[in-house]
Each structure stands twice: as structure tokens, then as C-alpha cells.
Amino acid sequence: xxxxxxxxxxxxxxxxxxxxxxxxxxxxxxxxxxxxxxxxxxxxxxxxxxxxxxxxxxxxxxxxxxxxxxxxxxxxxxxxxxxxxxxxxxxxxxxxxxxxxxxxxxxxxxxxxxxxxxxxxxxxxxxxxxxxxxxxxxxxxxxxxxxxxxxxxxxxxxxxxxxxxxxxxxxxxxxxxxxxxxxxxxxxxxxxxxxxxxxxxxxxxxxxxxxxxxxxxxxxxxxxxxxxxxxxxxxxxxxxxxxxxxxxxxxxxxxxxxx
Length: 259
Fold this sequence. Notes:
Strand order of the largest sheet: 2-1-3-4-5
Mean pLDDT: 92
CATH class of the largest domain: Alpha Beta
Structural class: alpha/beta
Pfam families: Fer4_9, Flavodoxin_5
Number of helices: 7
Number of strands: 10
Number of domains: 2
Order of helices and strands: EHEEHEHEHHEHEEHEE
CATH architecture of the largest domain: 3-Layer(aba) Sandwich
InterPro entries: 4Fe4S_Fe-S-bd (IPR017896), 4Fe4S_Fe_S_CS (IPR017900), EFR1-like (IPR047964), Flavodoxin_dom (IPR026816), Flavoprotein-like_sf (IPR029039)
Protein name: EFR1 family ferrodoxin
Low-confidence stretches: none
Largest sheet: 5 strands, parallel
Strand content: 15-25%
Organism: Clostridium brassicae
Keywords: Iron, Iron-sulfur, Metal-binding
CATH topology of the largest domain: Rossmann fold
């Protein structure tokens, strides 16, 4: 079978899982095409027999910008197809995919599998600490096992939806929605310190083109999704948040192969 895996990955965690899923399907004789929502390449949706959609989770919910991309870009498919939804995050808590399931159902796509993968913490601008290497090794082992089981269940037509308390799911939806809506304006908290060399790597790698060099100054606009890619890829760790230097995430950045 031919499958399409559509994903967003801010610092490599979600792409790491996407690559692992692709490998597991390949082991079983099926091909997966990976597609980042940052790509401008057209998609022939009718070339694929099933679909996988994956992203980081924002407060145990699919982020609004990813939901909106799917709503806008995935067509209504007359032939229908089965889908897998996955999210990555530092908390070992199930993700609510309620909005995505509703949207995909209207497009004749049936969600038969949902999965949350615990990954190293890559959001270090708040009160969160980096994940140590021992935990990363444990997460990797767990995720390899979970991915193998998930893929086999999907191929065996086993319905596998993560359970989440409806009230908690509702609360997660509201908190995530507020966080995503306010993220655009939180970029005002970003700036650069004197270590900045104006290399423009942050500008070139920003997924929403939110950063510009104007009059020899790095300017953060109002279209941020708080993926923190700019902070983590800065070669001088010169991007600061609320005038404070931030620890950089350093596990899966190379997965992105950014320009």
C-alpha cells in the first residue's frame, strides 16, 4: 500500500517519529511518503490509500495551526481512507484529537488509530527543564516498540484510539486554543543579545517567516507559533526570551535538515 504522512516538526521530535513510522511500514512492504506542511509542493491525494497526520501537541491537543492546515488543504476524498493521528510531547498524557477527527470525517477520512509519543522536552522558555540522556534512551526504546505495535495493528485493521476523559479533553482543547491564539503575539518577548552575528539562520529557518532583518536589526513579527526553532538552532544561542537566555534543545534537531 501507499501512504502519505503529513507532519509539522518544530525541532525534530515529530519528524523523528515520522521517520520511524516510515521504517516500520517499509519493513512490512508498504511505502510511506513524508510531507512537511512547510513544503510548497503539490500533493496528489488520490495517489495514496491511507494517511497519517502528526505534530507536536500543545497542552495535550493538536495545535491550531496544524488543524487549520488540514482543514484548508486536505480535500474531500470520494474513495475515503483510513487515518492515523499522532502527537509528540514531553508529558506522558494522551492527546485529544477531537477537532481533527471531526474535520477528517467530513472529508471522508476515518481515524482508526491515535497515538501520543513521549519525547524529550524541547520547550525550554518557561519553567521546564531539559530531558537528560538516560530518559531520552528510555523514550526511544518505548517509542520504537509503540510504533511497531501501532503499525501492525493498523495493518491488521485493529481499531486503536487512545482514551481520554471527555472533560479533560474539553479543557485541553480550550487551553490549547488560547495558547495558540496568543502565541502570535508572544513573539514580542523574543529578542537577541550582543552575541548575535546577524547570520540570518533564524530568519531562513522560521516556519512562519516571522523573523526579519531590518536596518541591521533582528525583528520578530506577530506570526509566531512558539515552536522555538529559532532559539534552538541559533549557533550563538543569542536569541533570548523575556530578556533571559534559554537552554537549547539538542536531541533531534538534525532530523530537520534545514537550510
